[in-house]
Amino acid sequence: MPLSLTGKPDTSDLFLPAQLGPYTLANRIVMAPLTRSRASEDGVPVPLMAQYYAQRASAGLIIAEATNISPQGRGYAFTPGLYTPQQVEAWQPVTRAVHDKGGRIFVQLWHVGRISHPSLQPGGGLPVAPSAILPRGKAFTASGYQPLVMPRALNTGEISGIVSQYKVAAANALAAGFDGVEIHAANGYLIEQFLREATNRRTDDYGGTLEKRARFLLEVTAAVVDACGADRVGIRLSPMGHANDSTPDTDSRSTYLHVVERLNPFGLAYLHVILGTAQGPRHVPGEFELQDLRRKFHGPYMANNGYDRERAILDRRYNQADFIAFGRAFISNPDLVDRLRIGARLSPADHQTFFGGGAAGYTDYPCMSEADRIAA
Ligand SMILES: Cc1cc2nc3c(=O)[nH]c(=O)nc-3n(C[C@H](O)[C@H](O)[C@H](O)COP(=O)(O)O)c2cc1C
Asked: Which atom of ligand 1 is nearest to the CA of 32?
C-alpha cells in the first residue's frame, strides 16, 4: 500500500512499536518536554498534572516538563522539582497514571543557570552561571515577568556540588516512578551556558578550550548515568539554538561533534536534537548539517521542532530520525497520536495559558470529535 501523506491511515512506521533503551514504545511519537508551571509554589506536583500526562499517554514516550534539580536551578515560577521527599512523593501518582494507561514517561532534569531571578532563588540570591554575563530577556516570576539580572559566576569548588544534585535528582526520578530521565543541555540553560564560548569565559578546568567547556556536560552525564543506568538516560541538545539569549559558537559543528563523540562511550538511550531554534525556524543562518550528529551518535536519534504529520512521516520514510518529538501540538491535542494516524485536523494551542493557571488550557483540550474523525 502506498504511503499516504494526506488524510488517510498509512503504513508509516511512525505509528509502530519501537525499542528505546529497555522499553518497547507503542510508537515513535514523543511528547517533547513542555514547561506548564502548574506545580505549587514550592515545586510540588499537583493532581492536575497526573490528569494532564495521563491524557497524553498514547505518545510512545512522554518527556515530562523540565524539572528543577535544586532550589538554585529554578528559573520559572510554579515549576516542579525533584529535590525534596514531598516532590518525589507527589510525582508518583503522575507516573502511575501514565503507566496505568500503558504509556512511558521520562522527566527532564533542569538547572537554568543565569535564566532566573532573585525572587526565585534561595534567600533572594543572585542566579549563578559559568561567567557573570548579563542575559537579555525576562524571567517568569510569581509576580509576573521581570528583567533578568547579572548572574554570579560559580566558584570552581561549587561545581561538583551541582553535579551531585543532578545525580540525586536522577535517583529521585526513578524513586518517583519515572522510566528514565532526559538531561536538559539545550535552550540556553546552565549546561549550554558552560558549553558555549559566548557564555563561558572561565579560566579554570571548566572553560577555555572546547574540551573544558564540555566538561560540565560530561560530568553531569556521568553522574546521571551512575544513578539511572545509561539505557534510561537521554540528552537534549539545541546545536543551533538561540533561545534564552544563547549564541551558537562560531564553529558549532566542531562543538557538537565533540560532544556527541564524548557521549558515545556512555551508551545513552537517545540523543534528542532541536532543529534550528526551539519554537522558531527549523533552519537558521549558518546552520551545519545536523544529520552529521546523527551519523556520529551510536544510538537512537530523536528530532524536534516544527514537525507536522507530513514532515514526520517523510523523516521516517527517508530515515532522518528514529523518533519525532512534538511540543505545542501535544498541548492542544491530547490524542495527537490518533489524529496523526488518521490525518485528522489538529486544534491550535492557546498561548495565553501556556504558563501558570489551572485546568483551563491544560486539561480541558478535548479529544477529536466524531466529525473530525469522519472528515479525516
Ligand atoms: C509552553 C512551552 C514550554 C516548553 N518547555 C520546555 C521545557 O521544559 N524543556 C525543553 O527542553 N523545551 C521546552 N519547550 C520547547 C519544546 O520542547 C519544543 O522544543 C518546541 O515547542 C518546538 O517543538 P514544536 O514545534 O513541536 O512545538 C517548551 C515549549 C513550549 C511551547
From this structure: 17
Strands (E), the chain: 18-20, 23-25, 29-31, 61-68, 105-110, 128-129, 138-141, 144-147, 152-153, 180-185, 233-237, 270-274, 301-304, 323-326
Task: Catalytic residue, from 189, 270, 307, 365: name it.
Answer: 189
pLDDT at 371: 84
Active-site residue, 301 included = no
From ligand 1's centre to the CA of 157, what distance in Å?
A: 32
CA of residue 330 relative to chain centroid, distance: 14
Residue 233 pairs with which residues in a beta bridge? Answer: 181
Q: What CATH class has 18-323?
A: alpha beta
Does the predicted TM-score (pTM) go above 0.85?
yes
To the nearest 5 percent, what fractions of the chain are helix, strand and coil? 35, 15, 45
110 grid coordinates:
533542569
SS3 letters for 208-243?
Answer: CCHHHHCHHHHHHHHHHHHHHCHHHEEEEECCCCCH
Q: Contact at 8 Å (CB) between 46 and 91? A: no
Note whether 325 and 304 are within 8 A (CB).
yes
Q: Write down the pLDDT at residue 285.
A: 87
User: 34: which residues sit within 8 A by CB, 6+ positions away?
Assistant: 65, 327, 328, 330, 331
Q: How many CA atoms lie within 13 A of 169 on its CB side?
A: 30
Position 264: which residue type? N
- What residues flank ligand 1, with Cβ below 6 Å? 32-35, 65-66, 108, 184, 186-187, 236, 274, 278-279, 304-307, 326-329, 354
Query: Which residue owns the Cα nearest ligand 1 atom 16?
Result: 327
How far apart, in whole angstroms, are the C-alpha atoms of residue 149 and residue 139? 9
The reported pLDDT for the residue numbered 358 is: 97
Q: Could you read off the pLDDT of 281-293 as tens digits, one per residue?
A: 998 888 999 999 9
**CA 347 – CA 361 distance, rounded (Å):** 12
Hey, whose CA ends up nearest to atom 19 of ligand 1?
A: 278
Domain borders along the chain are 18-323
Is the model more confident about 233 or about 285?
233
**Distance from C-alpha of 363 to C-alpha of 371, rounded to nearest angstrom:** 21
